[in-house]
């Protein structure tokens, strides 16, 4: 007698596959299915053929038992079949079949005159195509939507949001309130030292999954307003430090501002040129990795309006330094290149 895949389908106990009783509620079936699907999902068991086969069986069992009509039909088939095997063609001598699909379904679906239509199954799954049609389209094997027609739990969609912080808030961290699609605001704390344009992922705060998977995330883009004095260079802060000509020429001790703190004093060495950078350690951006420095770049300020006395002093200085040429060798270097 031919004992093809259709016989195996009739032998399968879908309730046992899901580990539930025959009078289990829809909620119990759904809960058992989700638990087993996560356990035996191929992504969680790469290369495990036994887990993959178990996953297919779970998907097929759920697909049948989760639908009220197909579950009722399955229960009838199991009751009438009694666990016996069914042949797909003429089995015994003289072409007499020992009870085929047509016998079962003529009884099940009202074939009162015992008129039979011979079904032919050519393989390719646990449920014959024609039988799958009769039972509402559920079938074995790999369906177009996953294993055995099972749609694996998918992650919910992400929600994109943005916020604008002041320069100081970005450096120190800040609490911001985001308006979410559902109307309920979400309050989050930005990391210390967040940068302009940086994206922050808030795990599990996005859209819910359509089929029991993990919720999506919120992707928060941070914009930072510029500061009137400081700029950021990695974990360092930069500031331009104006000094007078005499401070640059003779040397001096000057105050440098810090972000949100008291000024610090730095020494300007005699003969300091414009553009030289002075480093103040530990006055930059604080992060988990450490704290950056404050970089003060010297800019010599030339007075626009000189008093009579100041002008005379500058003229005296020019006379005293007449032999010095700050552009010495510049023209020769230009020609050589």
TrEMBL record:
<feature type="region of interest" description="Disordered">
    <location>
        <begin position="40"/>
        <end position="70"/>
    </location>
</feature>
<feature type="domain" description="J">
    <location>
        <begin position="13"/>
        <end position="78"/>
    </location>
</feature>
<dbReference type="Pfam" id="PF01556">
    <property type="entry name" value="DnaJ_C"/>
</dbReference>
<keyword id="KW-0677">Repeat</keyword>
<keyword id="KW-0479">Metal-binding</keyword>
<keyword id="KW-0143">Chaperone</keyword>
<dbReference type="GO" id="GO:0051082">
    <property type="term" value="F:unfolded protein binding"/>
</dbReference>
<dbReference type="GO" id="GO:0042026">
    <property type="term" value="P:protein refolding"/>
</dbReference>
<keyword id="KW-0346">Stress response</keyword>
<dbReference type="InterPro" id="IPR001623">
    <property type="entry name" value="DnaJ_domain"/>
</dbReference>
<protein>
    <submittedName>
        <fullName>Molecular chaperone DnaJ</fullName>
    </submittedName>
</protein>
<feature type="region of interest" description="Disordered">
    <location>
        <begin position="316"/>
        <end position="337"/>
    </location>
</feature>
<dbReference type="InterPro" id="IPR036869">
    <property type="entry name" value="J_dom_sf"/>
</dbReference>
<dbReference type="GO" id="GO:0006260">
    <property type="term" value="P:DNA replication"/>
</dbReference>
<dbReference type="GO" id="GO:0005737">
    <property type="term" value="C:cytoplasm"/>
</dbReference>
<feature type="compositionally biased region" description="Basic and acidic residues">
    <location>
        <begin position="324"/>
        <end position="337"/>
    </location>
</feature>
<dbReference type="GO" id="GO:0008270">
    <property type="term" value="F:zinc ion binding"/>
</dbReference>
<dbReference type="InterPro" id="IPR018253">
    <property type="entry name" value="DnaJ_domain_CS"/>
</dbReference>
<keyword id="KW-0862">Zinc</keyword>
<keyword id="KW-0235">DNA replication</keyword>
<keyword id="KW-0863">Zinc-finger</keyword>
<dbReference type="InterPro" id="IPR008971">
    <property type="entry name" value="HSP40/DnaJ_pept-bd"/>
</dbReference>
<dbReference type="InterPro" id="IPR002939">
    <property type="entry name" value="DnaJ_C"/>
</dbReference>
<feature type="compositionally biased region" description="Basic and acidic residues">
    <location>
        <begin position="52"/>
        <end position="70"/>
    </location>
</feature>
<dbReference type="Pfam" id="PF00226">
    <property type="entry name" value="DnaJ"/>
</dbReference>
């Amino acid at each position: 007698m031919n004992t093809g895949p259709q016989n195996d389908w009739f032998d399968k106990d879908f309730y046992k596959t899901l580990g539930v009783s025959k009078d289990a509620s829809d909620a119990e079936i759904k809960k058992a299915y989700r638990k087993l699907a996560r356990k035996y999902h191929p992504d969680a068991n790469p290369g495990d053929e036994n887990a993959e086969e178990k996953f297919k069986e779970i998907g097929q069992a759920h697909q049948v038992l989760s639908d009220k009509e197909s579950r009722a039909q399955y229960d009838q088939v199991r009751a009438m079949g009694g666990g016996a095997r069914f042949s797909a063609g003429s089995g015994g001598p003289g072409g007499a079949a020992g009870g085929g699909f047509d016998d079962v379904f003529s009884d099940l679906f009202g074939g009162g005159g015992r008129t039979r239509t011979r079904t032919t199954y050519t393989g390719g799954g646990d449920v014959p195509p024609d039988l799958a049609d009769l039972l509402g389209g559920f079938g074995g094997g790999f369906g177009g939507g996953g294993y055995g027609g099972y749609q694996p739990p998918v992650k919910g969609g992400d929600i994109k949001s943005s916020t604008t912080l002041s320069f100081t808030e970005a450096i120190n961290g800040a609490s911001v309130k985001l308006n979410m699609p559902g109307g309920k605001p979400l309050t989050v704390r930005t990391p210390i030292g967040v940068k302009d344009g940086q994206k922050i992922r808030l795990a599990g705060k996005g859209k819910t999954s359509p089929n029991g998977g993990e919720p999506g995330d919120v992707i928060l883009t941070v914009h930072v307003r510029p500061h009137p004095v400081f700029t950021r260079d990695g974990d360092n802060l930069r500031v331009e430090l104006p000094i007078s000509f005499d401070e640059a020429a003779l040397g001096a001790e000057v105050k440098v501002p810090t972000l949100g703190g008291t000024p610090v004093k730095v020494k300007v060495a005699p003969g300091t040129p414009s553009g030289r950078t002075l480093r103040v350690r530990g006055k930059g951006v604080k992060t988990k990795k450490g704290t950056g420095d404050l970089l003060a770049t010297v800019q010599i300020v030339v007075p626009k309006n000189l008093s009579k006395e100041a002008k005379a002093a500058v003229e005296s200085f020019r006379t005293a330094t007449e032999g010095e040429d700050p552009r010495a060798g510049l023209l020769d270097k230009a020609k050589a290149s």
